[in-house]
Structures are given as structure tokens and as C-alpha cells.
């Protein structure tokens, strides 16, 4: 039980003086402590990535809502929304029954692809994916 308590304890290792140099103080970094620190670093990185993905999905959903509001206005048949902070473009069709939209957030310079599908019962399904640049090529995005 002692090794588990040492592994998950928040206290720092006890400083020890090196025998050859009495002025130097080194922390005793045990193997368990190093493993704990590596594990915590990995968990923090995963949590940060999950938070970034959640915020990105929320921004994509809000962007597509703005796009659909823009498209539903009377007399508006443009397929591109270009505002100060956002650009949404309909991408060329693929060999799938879905519609694809490229989204560029100008303030953070992030890019994403929205895949939208309308079922026979009238319901919509949308999924979002982060992409690297304005070519909007996610995975194997191959236009017709």
C-alpha cells in the first residue's frame, strides 16, 4: 500500500544533499515519481486536446447555423458566406450522398469541414472535422 500512496501523493520528494558537494541540493526523483509525472503530463495533454476539440465543434455548429440563416434569407442564392470573422464555402460534391462545407475561422486561422446529410425522414446529421489548411482536404476528400 505504501508504493501506491507514494505514487499518487502530491508532495514533492524530500530534498537530499549530495555527499560530494554539501552546497548542492538535489531532489530525490524516484522512478515512481517520474512515472506519475509522465502520466499526469499525458492526461493533461489529452484533456487539453479534448477541450480544444469540444470548443471547435461548438464554433463549427454556430458557424453552420449562421450559414443556414444566411442562405434562408429571401433572394439570397449565394453558396458562400464571407464575414469579418468567418468564411463558409460549399465544397465540390464527392462520391457520397452528403454535402460538404469548408469553414475558415479568420480570428484563429482554423479550418474545418462540415459533413451534412439529410435522411429520408427529413432529419439532418452533421459532423465536423478539423483540417490543416484552406484546401479543406480531410482524410481522403476526393471531389468528383
Write a structural description.
With 144 residues, the protein is α+β, with helices and mostly antiparallel strands. It has one domain. 34% of the residues lie in helices and 26% in strands. It has 2 helices and 7 strands; from the N terminus they run αββαβββββ. It has helices at residues 2-8, 31-72; strands at residues 15-17, 25-27, 80-82, 86-90, 99-105, 110-118, 124-131. The strands form 2 sheets. It has a 5-stranded antiparallel β-sheet, with helices on one face. Strands 1-2 form a two-stranded antiparallel sheet. Helix 1 (2-8) crosses helix 2. The protein is elongated and about 70 Å long. 10% of the residues are buried. The model has no long low-confidence stretch (mean pLDDT 79).
**Cα separation of the termini:** 62 Å
Roughly what fraction of the amino acids lie in strands? 25-35%
Q: Helix/strand-derived class?
A: alpha+beta
User: Could you give the order of strands across the largest sheet?
Assistant: 3-4-5-6-7
Gyration radius (Cα, Å) is 25 Å
Name the average pLDDT: 79
Poorly predicted residue ranges: none
Shape: elongated
Can you give me a brief rundown of this structure?
The protein is of the alpha+beta class and 144 residues long.
What are the key terms here?
elongated, 144 residues, five-stranded antiparallel beta sheet, alpha+beta, 26% strand
Amino acid at each position: 500500500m505504501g508504493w501506491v500512496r507514494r505514487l499518487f501523493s502530491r508532495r514533492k520528494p524530500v530534498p537530499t544533499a549530495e555527499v560530494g558537494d554539501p552546497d548542492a541540493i538535489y531532489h530525490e526523483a524516484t522512478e515512481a515519481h517520474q512515472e506519475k509525472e509522465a502520466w499526469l503530463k499525458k492526461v493533461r495533454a489529452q484533456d487539453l486536446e479534448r477541450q480544444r476539440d469540444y470548443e471547435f465543434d461548438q464554433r463549427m455548429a454556430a458557424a453552420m447555423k449562421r450559414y443556414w440563416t444566411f442562405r434562408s434569407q429571401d433572394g439570397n442564392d449565394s453558396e458562400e458566406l464571407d464575414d469579418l470573422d468567418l468564411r463558409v464555402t460549399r465544397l465540390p460534391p464527392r462520391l457520397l450522398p452528403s454535402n460538404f462545407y469548408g469553414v475558415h475561422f479568420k480570428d484563429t486561422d482554423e479550418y474545418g469541414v462540415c459533413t451534412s446529410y439529410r435522411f429520408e425522414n427529413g432529419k439532418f446529421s452533421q459532423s465536423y472535422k478539423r483540417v490543416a489548411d484552406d484546401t479543406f482536404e480531410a482524410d481522403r476528400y476526393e471531389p468528383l
